[in-house]
Amino acid sequence: MLDDILRVSQDGQRVYLSAGKVEHTNGQPIEKKQIKDWLVSNQVEGFFCFDDTIESALTKLNSSPDDAEPEDFIIAERRDATIESRIADDKMTAYLVVNGACGGRGLKADDILSTLREANIVRGIKKPTLQKLLSASGKLKPGEYLDVPVAFGRQPIAGEDAHLVYLIEDPAERVRRPKQREDGTVDMRDLGEMVMVKQGQPLAKLIPETSGYEGFTVTGSVLSTSAGKPMTLTAHPGSELSNKDPNILVATMAGIPRLQKDGVAVDDALSLDAVDVGTGHVNFEGSVVIKGDVEVGMKVTASGTVTVGGVVESATITAGADIIVQNGIIGRQVAADSDINCTLVAEGNIVAKFAQYATLCANQNLELTLHAMHCKTHVGQSIVISDATKRKGTLAGGKHEVGEKVQAVIIGASAGAHTYIHCFPRLPILKRELVNLNKSWEEKSAQLDKIQAAEKKLEAVPEEKRDAAMVERISSTREHLSTALSEIEALVEETDAAIESGYQTASIIATKSLLSRVHCTIGEEKHLVHSEHGPSHLFYDNAAIELKPYQANG
């Protein structure tokens, strides 16, 4: 019966079902299972079956009268394995989609390669993945498919900037990290030997910039990269470029190293056991190393770094570089409104364990490990008060002006003293500069308008009657005013950027506690802390000072 209605085409590619003019065996309708069994018995069960067509053909077959016109339905066909490509929108990943063979030819290596060529997938192709795909495709059952990423683009990698690696210890690190005992604890009184270098000793090494790596898409487009920024290794006084390697800096003399952003300077060193009435005041062209204390009323002036192994007590120190005090800075204030009698001024950083009743002026940073009590500070960049464990470090009382950031473990005094902090104090100066620049721009612009008007009048005069000297003078003045206006506009833009940057970098951070009676100013905005807070972060936002909880990773 089924052989009467089912047949395989002569080319072996399709299976037909004929409906109409066929007598049903025993008058029973033919079911789909019978069709499937016939396909198996005729070894074409692997063909792709059109199940919806089988249902339609059986409906017609089982419901048509015996004299109905026959109609052939293609219910299955042989299909070869197929492959197509898919590329992600960003062209950084390409996929191959393989549909298993249905009684037909399996996938061949040439099919894969031609599909890649047609899709212009030319870079980042993973050949081992292609081999695995070819092998896996032969195991697919009819109707199964694989969707596999086979090619990957590469994002460009920017080059690294040139940078300096110091080959010697930073003298200030002795205060930041005291010497460790064998049991792991630290001895705050033993800060190690003074840092000295010998003639010919390597000081720093320049690591050149790298060019980076270009990226590419799977279709072969090149994604450009950017090279790192170069840096020049500078031979400061007391150092020179090595004859063996121009990227290495060596000392030309024995002395105390002074780390610079682009190199290292070595200062001739004056070494003293102490500074007292016996030595008198010290004024030295170079660096000064004082193993002991700087006693009351003494003055030390140096063009380089001043390093004090003991304490500074009611004395004055001025340094052209850093001031490093291995112990404390102690001053006194006889009356509430009298001047503090201990002053330290550094063009670089001031680093010490603690300071109390002292005036501290650092063009760069002030770093203390224990506390600053009732001090007056003027700092160009940041104040940081914290030990290595971040458990100790108090800023209490006094008045503090800082260019950028103040950070301490505890800010404020619990005994009733007021603490005044002013970040970004340069704002009024920058605003005045803006006013003056805008005024100058208006004046120059008015002058230019007059010159241009005179130039137009002169153009109306016949050329042979024009005063050549006048023409030259007007043209020269116009060019000069145009240049001046461009320079003023650049300065205005630069000043605006400085104001914006000043607000962005200004912040006051207490990593553990912010106590009451702390008067905070950022730029010209003020905020008084009335009650105690936990970890806190004060910053400028939307024309006001915001106070929010501080998070170390935020």
Automatic annotation (TrEMBL):
Signal peptide: none annotated. InterPro entries: FapA (IPR005646), FapA_b_solenoid (IPR046865), FapA_N (IPR046866). The keyword Transport does not apply. It holds the Pfam family FapA. Keywords: Plasmid. Residues 84-261 form the Flagellar Assembly Protein A N-terminal region domain. PANTHER family: POLYMERASE-RELATED, RNA-BINDING PROTEIN KHPB N-TERMINAL DOMAIN-CONTAINING PROTEIN. This is FapA family protein. It comes from Salinivibrio kushneri.
